[in-house]
Amino acid sequence: MSDSKRFQQKTYHKKATGSALVTVKKHSKDHDFKLLGSCFCPFVQRIWIALQFKGVDYQYVEIDPYKKPPALMQFNPRGTVPVLQHGSWGCYESTVLMEYLEDLNVGIPLLPQGNPQLRADCRLWSDHINRRIIPAFYHCLQAQELDKQVHFAEELQREIATLVDAAISHGPGPYFLGPSLSFVDVQFAPWMLRLSRVLKPYRDWPDPIAGSRWGKWIDAIENDEAVKSTTSTDDLYFESYERYAENRPNTSQLADAVNAGRGLP
Q1: How far apart are CA 257 and CA 109, in angstroms?
Q2: Containing H/E element for 216?
Q3: Does the pLDDT of residue 6 top 50, yes or no?
Q4: Angle 85-239-47 from CA coordinates, rounded to 5°
């Protein structure tokens, strides 16, 4: 690799921008309830959206997961984000943390109340996102050969279509369960945003058909206040994901797992 190309390579951002930066400043005061996160990380954005939607008071602490500071390692020996610190207790893994926020019974619930079957349905489709959609997203982004990019893009489109069919079964939307943001929306929202900000410029991902159930869902997420308040400017995502698009060595534990054909770490 030439020195000029190495100089031009982009790296991950260490500070939020745009609306997300405004939110960081609003939640910078020391608090017993802390979100340890990284501005570019979609798993962090899940928890961030949930906190904003619920109106929970918290402190946002920007963490560089590649440096693995003690504040992070104390609660997650794997050194990944997000981490929620609640007093002297801390935990990690975004889906587990979303469940924890539900169990606190503070603010607006994301899981439907009084309907065990519908709650189970939400967990089922959240699992689909984690097991099917997210791996296909990264396979498509990290693939370097055109035929593999096309293959994984088609796989991602099929898995999204399966989820959209499930959303259609719940009505016209525009969100997964109907007119309001819910658990499945928050699980998927960060990658819905990154389809246009990352996968479109790097892998020519198509825009949704205007007026379609998928298109309405995307529009609802893009315009949701809790989502917007945790979203940085487009350049942050484009530049932070260049390392994935080039499939550089040591990009992340997730990238390594995708390359090795393993499940998400």
Answers
A1: 33
A2: helix 213-223
A3: no
A4: 25
Global pTM reads 0.95
Q: By C-alpha distance, which of 211, 150, 214, 222 is closest to 181?
A: 222
Going by their DSSP bridges, the two strands 59-62 and 33-37 should be labelled as: parallel
**Between 5 and 81, the higher pLDDT residue:** 81
Within 8 A by CB and 6+ apart from 139, the residues are: 148, 152, 155, 156, 258
pLDDT of residue 5: 46
Tell me how far the alpha carbon of residue 235 is from its chain's centroid: 16
Beta bridge partners of 185: none
Enter the tokens of residue 80. Answer: 């990944």
CA distance 41 to 60: 14
- Both tokens of 1, joined, read 């690799």
CA gap 55, 61 in Å, rounded = 17
pLDDT at 250 over 90: no
Does an H or E element contain 37, and which? strand 33-37
Strand partners, 61: 36
pLDDT tens-digit readout, 201-249: 999 999 999 999 999 999 999 999 999 999 999 999 999 999 999 999 8
Q: Which residues contact 89 (CB under 8 A, 6 or more apart)?
A: none
